[in-house]
Amino acid sequence: MILAPESLSELSAEQMREMLGRLMGDLRHKQAIIDKLTHENAVLKRLKFAAQSERFSPEQRSLLEESLDADLQAVAEELEALAPPTPEGQAKQQPKRRPLPAHLPRREIRHDPESTTCACGCQMKRIGEDVSEKLDYVPGTFTVERHIRGKWACAQCEKIVQAPVEPHVIDKGIPTAGLVAHVMVAKYADHQPLYRLEPIFGRAGFPVPRSTLAQWVGTCGVRLQPLVDALKAVVLRHGVLHADETPVQMLKPGNGKTHRAYLWAYAAGAFEDLKAVVYDFCESRAGVHAREFLGDWQGTLVCDDYSGYKEGFKSGKIIEAGCLAHARRKFFDLHAANKSQIAGFALEQFGKIYEIERQVKGLEAEERKSIRQQQTKPVLDALHEWMLLQRQKVPGNSATAKALDYSLNRWVALTRFVDDGQLPVDNNWVENRIRPIAQGRANWLFAGSLRAGQRAAAIMSLIQSARMNGHDPYAYLKDVLTRLPTHKASQIEELLPHRWKPAGGTGA
């Protein structure tokens, strides 16, 4: 309300002070809103990236088609595993496949019995052979493996001996384990959709249809799932876990649009003796997904402040450890937006803490805890008192207040690492495992179905865990896919990335 000059002269000193107080209050409120909007605008400009259309484009259609082909093959594999065995003498119908091109280089691999001497003592004679061809691929070049199984017969016993057919991850299929591993790495590590792989293979001399590639992917997803289940079980044996999640668009085939699904990542603690990550693809960000994954697990969970984890903390079985990097990030955004002095001071204190962490990173847990108690705790105590004091001075809805509140409301969880040398200072260990998925979104845009997302999560769990242990994902998958068909289920953990040793080798 604006008063005329003559009206102002009629106001008492008390009324003038009251009116001035109201005006100053309005001014502070408006300035807080301006600061908040300015801050949000600065953050959005830095986070801005190109918008993604949800129209049903040709690229979406290609990705949907290959996801459906892979899903169908995966379902077929699972149904076949549940079906009763085929009666003896009744062969299963197999689709006829076209012969591999004659111009591709051939490499013969001969399979003969260990001994061609019959039990009666006679030397067997070779009477023929069976030949099967497998398509192999070295980037840029296709070759054909000719597996020749000689037939040997004893004239006296009328007995025929032949080396058994070696099992393959794709039974009676044309690809070698190396070719399948290349497709899996190209799709899930290099983020190349199958419709892009098809012309790449065509230039190499053999255009494998994307529907066939999708079938290989679907089969491998089913074959590799026991490894992922075993990896999850190993991760859940550890007392410190990291958790994080990132949005992934999932296609709704009925209307050609997408909705927001989530890929969750769980990794053993940064100071644990296991380098592994397990991804879990879910249709939403609901906390029930985290609770279902963790099950009866008990320990300390390092995570951000997402409410979905809170239900697990209420039971007391799971202890919350906060992420100091998230708290620091609030002040970093504030400082980047308006060069706030409060934010600048807070960043200096966080910098001191992280400098101490760099020094204790390679120490044992007890020694790390001791140094944190001596050096980090005084810095945190002083920072906490300073934050409480500053919070009393700033408007409640300002960006500065929000940055302070984030730390103050979570202080116990944020500082839990000081009293436990096995806990990391932040959640960056698992956030770095999420980054490759965020990079891949620019290529594959979305998951074609829930099953496709779950399959991607499973295979990426193995690929990223292999990388964490210093393995070449292609070499790892090729060896695992070669050995998996004959590997004992009870010894499946031997093929996990942190325990894997190449066949005949000492490690990768």
Automatic annotation (TrEMBL):
Start and end residues of each Transposase IS66 C-terminal domain: 461-498
Occurrences of domain Transposase IS66 zinc-finger binding (ranges): 116-158
Region (Disordered), start-end ranges: 82-108
InterPro entries cross-referenced by the UniProt entry: IS66_C, Transposase-related, Transposase_IS66_central, Transposase_TnpC_homeodom, Znf_dom_IS66
Segments forming a coiled coil: none
Domain Transposase IS66 central intervals: 172-454
Residue ranges constituting the Transposase TnpC homeodomain domain according to the UniProt record: 37-109
Name of the protein this chain belongs to: IS66 family transposase
